[in-house]
Specification:
The protein is an alpha+beta fold. It is built from 4 helices and 4 strands. Helix 2 crosses helix 3. The chain starts with 10 loop residues before the first helix and ends in a 5-residue tail after the last helix.
Length: about 140
């Protein structure tokens, strides 16, 4: 399970993650990823003085279109567990927001984990994390 310390709780962090970075569509959810870089989280660098170790950070958007409260909480628990199992695929400086679709309520935990793994290993996400790694150390691709 994702520790509360690693959950995105600020609305500004949700907004920035949804607006910047990479977006990967899956059958049952949309994954938005942003990597902490020179311009992240904002131009003034307000979050740079905050301890940024121990990521990646995870946020969920499970709207009422997914189902009633019981169904939404079930989907959220499954997605948190899937993220905890697959977060090793991402760099520590990553913010991830998963926006669940209605069909996510019909999927098992294993199916959601497979889709999340596919999203984390997609070309778009790999290009984003590689570009940030290159700009951080100034060297060529790893």
């Amino acid at each position: 399970m994702t520790a509360p310390l690693h959950r995105i709780s600020r609305g500004s962090d949700f907004s920035r993650t949804l607006k910047s970075g990479a977006r990967v569509n899956s059958r049952d959810f949309v994954v938005h990823l942003a990597v902490v870089g020179r311009e992240w989280p904002d131009p003034r660098g307000l979050r740079r003085d905050v301890a940024m170790s121990g990521g990646p950070w995870f946020g969920l958007v499970v709207s009422k279109s997914v189902g009633n409260a019981v169904t939404r909480h079930l989907v959220a628990r499954r997605l948190r567990a899937a993220f905890a199992g697959e977060s090793h695929l991402l760099p520590d400086e990553t913010y991830v927001v998963v926006r669940a679709r209605r069909s996510a309520a019909e999927r098992s935990s294993d199916e959601l984990a497979d889709q999340l793994r596919d999203a984390f290993t997609s070309r778009r996400v790999l290009a984003l994390t590689e570009a940030v790694a290159v700009s951080a150390d100034g060297a060529g691709p790893r």
